[in-house]
Amino acid sequence: MIMDKITLSHGAGGREMHKLIDSVFMKEFSGPILREKKDSAILNIGNKKIAFTTDSYVVNPIFFPGGDIGSLAIYGTVNDLSVCGARPLYISVGAVIEEGLETSVLEKIVRSMAEAARKTGVQIVTGDTKVVEKGACDRIFINTSGIGEVYYDKLSTDNIMTGDSVIVSGPIGDHAISVISKREGIEFNTMIRSDSAPLDKLISKVLRASKKVRFMRDPTRGGLATTLNEIASGAKSGIAVEEAKVPVAEGVRQACELLGFDPLYLACEGRVIIIAAKEDGPRILKALRSEKCGRGAKIIGNVTGDHSGRVHLNTISGGKRILDMLSGEQLPRIC
């Protein structure tokens, strides 16, 4: 047993959550598909490869600059399918609603989900509704599951090679700072809006531009640093990141300095990390920058042959430090 009770840190996406998953869930559920720990399970059904994923959304507040819990749930599931090389097709929606929630609020969230589904071309095909007593949840929790058809099946950490480029599709940390500023009533000189967005079209362009994309993942809970650690661990390779090249919007940087956060650990909801052959880096950047949500794309580092399974940061000041997985809880209830 690794803990007596579950704490918020077990849901933060970092080291504690991975220990919980490995020691409790994987211990009982483990199978060859689950052990791959991808954003979606890749299933062989007949002569087709199907991607299947599920996620739950408990963000507080449920409306924030740049999005709301409804669109966030649809885009999150679309993105989990897209980063596995799948074309999102069908989504289910499960809603747990606290008694007392205003009907007008529920209608606004549902309209947002419907608009997000239309925007991404997915069909909401089944669902479930539960209403619980006051205090049993916080206004509304949403679970979504999604199915997509795999059109690019070469994405695996096993394919990552020394020298590959590490690319991020845009500035990091906007979503987390947007949510926390709304929750705490903090105002900055510039409105910071969530980066919540669908990645399906962006990723499709990238995969048309390059056949040497090795792996992709969206840096949600735990942020860029934790996601890179997951990739390095899976690939059993080192990753070197150039701090000066990591895109962070000035407003987010100032907010982090004020609030004491490290932007490398802040969640994104509309960014993707791409590991690809070095020679294809420029054409992937061109494809990313052709879409609005990819205009801030940068090559931020490379895969190394040393420090197997570890990520290290070459700092702006000329130093070097280990960039570890998130430990503890930085920001709860952000997705």
Please give the structural blueprint:
Elements lengths: L14 H15 L11 E5 L2 E10 L5 E2 L2 E2 H14 L3 E13 L4 H18 L2 E10 L7 E11 L14 E4 L5 H11 L15 H10 L3 E5 L5 H13 L2 E5 L7 H10 L13 E4 L4 H9 L8 E7 L6 E4 L5 E3 L13
Helix pairs in contact: 2-3, 5-8
Key features of this structure:
alpha+beta; seven-stranded mixed beta sheet; five-stranded mixed beta sheet; 30% helix
Walk me through what this model shows.
There is one protein chain. The longest helix is centred in the first third of the chain and has 18 residues, at about 105-120. The protein is globular. A hairpin with a 5-residue loop joins strand 13 and strand 14. By secondary structure, the protein is of the alpha+beta class. It has a seven-stranded mixed sheet with strand order 9-11-8-12-10-13-14. The protein has helices spanning about 15-30, 70-80, 105-120, 175-185, 200-210, 225-235, 250-260, 280-290, and strands at about 40-45, 50-55, 65, 65-70, 85-100, 125-130, 140-150, 165-170, 215, 240, 275, 300-305, 310-315, 320. It is about 30% helix and about 25% strand. It is built from eight helices and 14 strands.
The geometry reads as globular
- Number of discrete helical segments: 8
First-to-last CA distance: 28 Å
Residue ranges: pLDDT <50 for 5 or more in a row? none
User: Which series of helices and strands comes N to C?
Assistant: HEEEEHEHEEEHHEHEHEHEEE
Could you tell me the strand content as a percent range? Answer: 25-35%
Which structural class do the helices and strands define? alpha+beta
Major sheet strand order = 9-11-8-12-10-13-14
Radius of gyration (Å): 19 Å
